[in-house]
Amino acid sequence: MLARSSSDKPDVRFDRAQKRGERTRTLLWLGLLVLSALVLTMFGCGSTESNGEEPGVSRTLSATSAPPGGEIRITLQPQGIEGFYAVREEPGDLEVTSNSASTFTDGVFVQLDASSFDYSVRIPVDAASGSRYRISGEYWTDPATRLPVTPAESLITVD
To answer: Given strand 95-99, what is the order of strands in its sheet?
Structure first.
């Protein structure tokens, strides 16, 4: 038989200390992960809200009436939105003649930053005096969640 010397025995104290150190490191990483998630949630990182404002897009008209063939400029202003947003406006029989959005395709305006943009609409030349045109729309920063532009409806009357 071979005799074992005291140096051949595993050092149980070292193994326990090493496992305790690994557990401590794991708990520290887990704590850091939880703390990071809380900070991101508290400060709204990754959110579309900024400065505590409720997100939204508002519509203003340069005029509420115009003659047949006349044009009206419409401004869309975001509030509490960071980054890109998209807007689909429903101008009915009014023709969109120009816009300052980043892009305009298939009735959707896309603005690549959180700034306002304008678009102009033309009243049909054959529109009767007193005719009314309603404009409504929706906006989104995520296509799965669409919200109404305010006011919900804007009215243009033909002079």
So the answer is: 56-61, 71-79, 117-122, 95-99
Q: How far apart are CA 62 and CA 33, in angstroms?
A: 50
pLDDT in tens, 42-93: 444 333 445 568 999 999 999 999 999 999 999 999 999 999 999 999 999 9
CATH of 56-158, one of 2.40.50.100, 3.40.50.300, 2.60.40.10, 3.40.50.620: 2.60.40.10
What's the rounded Cα separation, in Å, for the pair 150 and 4?
A: 85
Q: Is 108 helix (H, G, I), strand (E, B) or coil?
A: strand
- Give Cα separations from 77 to 55, 108, 111, 114, 119 (angstroms): 11, 15, 11, 9, 12
